[in-house]
């Protein structure tokens, strides 16, 4: 596995005056997005379930550029209240639906409860948060970026629940891009490949991810979270003003189809 360093191309000040809301801002991609948006001039409100990690993200950005709310995105009333509070206090020009995740299991081993938990986290929450953000996004002619998953269009073995949820988000993104275009709101999805974040540090994930990079990613490199962040910033910037309803894969050509050898032994 080789790794490339994250790339930064946008000029300082590109996002001056932007107010952004980032779910899952306390780690991984969400943290990288938060840091980059703030560097480019935005104010970011982060959401996550753990205060310590959300606060640690704040140590990486200028004071005054960031605040956070401890909240579970699956608690639809609570998260809608956070969106409304953020919109009232700062306005809302960018919503990044990033919080998400899954467990790796073949479809036969996904119980109704397991299916529901992944759909609630990765699809239902996105619908409700985005709907709650609508009036504020309309007021600012704002943008939504939904963090998706490489494989959303082709499928991904061991991730039936998650891929189904992300496909749902893609459909939602494309539909709202049509419904809300007249209000100047743009919505897009980004599909990272393998991003080496702490969430993937357990043994099963290690196994899957090492294999994914070496055997299922033609460019044989993980996706740096900073590259995802730069694309989010681009989509929020004036340069992205005509981009809507798109899925942008940022995955080194990854494809999770060729064989069960990528899954932990127990799942083959
Ligand atoms: C070429 C393509 C490249 C793509 C690479 C993609 C790599 C992907 C990377 C990522 O997405 S990284 C970010 C990932 N982060 C995580 O995934 C976080 C870890 N996951 C979780 O926190 C949880 O799994 C969850 C998805 C949030 C679910 O948590 P929840 O608290 O809701 O679950 P539980 O209450 O514990 O269980 C609910 C339900 O689910 C069943 N279940 C849980 N784990 C498993 C498992 N490993 N296998 C099977 N079933 C599982 C559990 O039994 C419960 O079911 P019921 O008992 O109710 O039937
Ligand atoms: N890593 C990878 O290879 C890839 C990841 N992705 C997707 O990118 C997104 C970010 O992943 P990544 O940064 O790797 O993972 P992390 O686990 O590092 O980040 C997920 C973040 O979401 C937060 N979160 C999780 N569940 C909830 C919840 N119910 N309510 C509020 N916040 C929540 C977590 O914080 P807390 O636990 O404090 O709530 C955490 O900060 C996810 O949607 C993931 O599926 C897509 C492609 C590849």
From TrEMBL:
Known catalysed reaction(s)?
(2E)-tetradecenoyl-CoA + NADPH + H(+) = tetradecanoyl-CoA + NADP(+); (2E)-octenoyl-CoA + NADPH + H(+) = octanoyl-CoA + NADP(+); (2E)-decenoyl-CoA + NADPH + H(+) = decanoyl-CoA + NADP(+); a (2E)-enoyl-CoA + NADPH + H(+) = a 2,3-saturated acyl-CoA + NADP(+)
UniProt keyword Disulfide bond, yes or no: no
Q: Does the keyword Lipid biosynthesis apply?
A: yes
Q: How does it assemble?
A: Interacts with PEX5, probably required to target it into peroxisomes.
Keyword terms of this UniProt record: Fatty acid biosynthesis, Fatty acid metabolism, Lipid biosynthesis, Lipid metabolism, NADP, Oxidoreductase, Peroxisome, Phosphoprotein
Q: What sections of the sequence does the record tag as coiled-coil?
A: none
Pathway, per record: Lipid metabolism
Function statement? Participates in chain elongation of fatty acids. Catalyzes the reduction of trans-2-enoyl-CoAs of varying chain lengths from 6:1 to 16:1, having maximum activity with 10:1 CoA. Has no 2,4-dienoyl-CoA reductase activity.
Protein name per its UniProtKB record:
Peroxisomal trans-2-enoyl-CoA reductase
The organism's place on the tree of life at top rank: Bacteria
State the EC number(s): 1.3.1.38
Which parts of the chain span the membrane according to its record? none
Q: Where in the cell is it found?
A: Peroxisome
EC class, as a word, reads oxidoreductase
